Amino acid sequence: MDVRNNRRQAGGSSVVTANRLLDGRIVWLAEDGVWSDRIDAARIFANDGPQGGSESGSESGSNGGIESVIAAVAARQQADGVVGVYGVQLRDDSATPVPATVRERIRAFGPSVHPEFAPFTEATTNVR
Q: Were 18 and a residue from 69, 85, 104, 110 both cysteine, which residue would form a disulfide, CB within 3.0 to 4.6 Å?
């Protein structure tokens, strides 16, 4: 089981993340199997099997589906140009992918500072 985030709830959902080797950026596994730097493009997996995907025959048991996806992606991480592949539990109360832990929300959305002081937000695009 993935030791970085092994508290995924059965019945919940997760996304797969890694760091891109070329520039160290945080990336998310997208629907088409490529890596995206946007969490909203990430494919969402049910913790006990793929959610709404074309894959079938997921492993039985808690986290079997997401763990098998992580293992498959980790096996090809060097060819994909990424490192440190692991799964991230998502909050159940959001329509868009929002990580459950503060650490992963910071990785996904940036530092937890007031939007006025964040370097790249909509609030700062209209700088005078």
A: 85
